[in-house]
Amino acid sequence: MKPDSLGELSTWLAATDIAYLELRGPDGLVLRLLNQSGQVTSAPADFEPSPVATSVVRAPGAGRTLLAHPLRSGPLVQSGDRVAQGQPLLLLSVGSLLMCVPSPQSGVVMAVHQSDDQLVGYGTPLVTLQPLPASDATSQTRS
Amino acid sequence: MIEILSASALATVQDAGRTGALRWGVGTSGAMDTMALAAGNLLVGNAEDAAGIEWPIFPVQVRFEVDAVFAVTGADTAAMLDTTPILPWWRHFARAGQILRLHAPQRSRWSACRAYLCVAGGIDVPLVLGSRSTQLRGSFGGFEGRTLRPGDRLPIGHTSKASVDHSSGCGLIPPGVSMPLLVDGMPAVRVLPAAEYRGYFQSSQVAFWSEPWRITPQSDRYGYRLAGKPLIPVEPKELRSHGIVPGVIQVPPDGQPIVQMRDAQPSGGYPKIGTVIEADLWRLGQAPIGSAIRFIQVSWDEATDALAANRRWLDDAARRVRLWQQSAARQVSEVRHET
Rounded to two decimals, what is the model's pTM? Predict the structure, then answer.
C-alpha cells in the first residue's frame, strides 16, 4: 500500500464507528488498524478483536415462513439491513392468518436462515442479528 | 375521533351497504370492496359490517385523536404511522396524536385501487335506514351524507376491549392473492347472462365473453363505463325503466357496456346483457381505471357457490383472528403474573 493510501484510509476510518479494521494483502501482509474515538493507530501484535455479539431470533410458534408480505415482491429484510426494535423481520402464516416475527432489539441483519414457505416450529432459528445501540437505526421496512 | 388532515377527494364512510330500501328507490351504497372492509373489521375485532372509511384517491393523512386499534386493507398504500412504515392487511395500534399516511397504491402482487381504514369500535355515525353507508345521490348517511373534507372529525364507536395493544398484531392474506381469478393473465369476474342477453348477435355474445374490457376514466362508484368491441342487439330495444342492482351490465345505444356499481341508481331502461355476480363485485370494485377485465360465464349454482366460498373465507378469517386474540390476551396476562 502506498503511504498516501494509508493516510486516506486512516482518515476515512477515523470518521466511522468501526473500531477495528483488518486488511489482508495478496502476499500475505496484513494491515491492522485500531480506531479509538477517531484516533487511528496500528493495532499491537497481540491484539485480538472481541467476537461480534450475535443474537438469534427464533420462531415464537409454528407456521409457514414468508420472507415478503403477500402483497409485495421484495423481502422484509435482507442481510446487511439495519433494523429497529419491533421491526418485522419475517412473517409466519397459519392458514390465512399472518403473524410477524419482530426484531427483539435494534441491530443489523447478519443472516436470514429460512427460505420462503418453510414449515417452522417454536424455537426454530429464523434470523441472526448483530445487536447495535438504538441511536442510529431508523425503522425501514422494505417494499 | 379521527381527524381528516389532507384533501381526500371522494373518500366516504361506508359499511357493507343499505339493504331493504330499494323499494323506496334507495340504492345500497356500501364499500366497493366488501371483502376488504369485512377483513379490516375482523382484524380489529368489529362486526364484519361495521362502518369504515373508503379511500379511492391518495395521498391521505388522518390523525388519531385517541388511542386506537386499526387496520388498513384493500390496496397496498405503503401506509405509514408517523415515520414508521406499517404492514397492510394488519392489525396495528395507534397512540393518540399519531398520524396515518396512505400513498398511491403499489401493485406488485395485486392490482387494486381502493383502501379501507377500519378502527376498533367502527366509525360511529348515525344509522340511516339501518346502515352507515354514505348515500351520495340522496346526501344522507355516512358522515353528513357527503365525501370527507380536511378538518372533518369522525367519531369512533366505544369498544369494551383493552385500549392499549402492545402485541405485534396479526394480519390476513388478502383474498386477491389467495383466491385469484384470472383469464389469460387478466383479472376476471364471473357474470350471469341477463334478461336481454339472447337479444344480441352471436358475434356480440362471443365478444362479450372473449374480449378484454377496459375500465375507462368515466368510471366511479355509480358505474364503470367499459370500452371494447361494440355489442350489437339484433333489434334495438327500448325498455321501460325497471329495477336494477349493482353488477347489472347495461348496453346503451353506443354498444359500450356500463356496469352498475354501489351507488348506481336503482332503476334504468337500457337493455341488460349480463350481471356481475354478487360474489365478485369486490374484485370489480378494486379494478383500477385503465386496467382491463374479462368476463367468465357462470350458472346460477356457480354464482351461489362463489358466495359460499366468500362466506367460508370470512368465517375462517374470523375464527383465526379470534384464536390469535385469545392467545395474545393470555400472553399478556402471563407476563403480568410473572412481573
Answer: 0.88
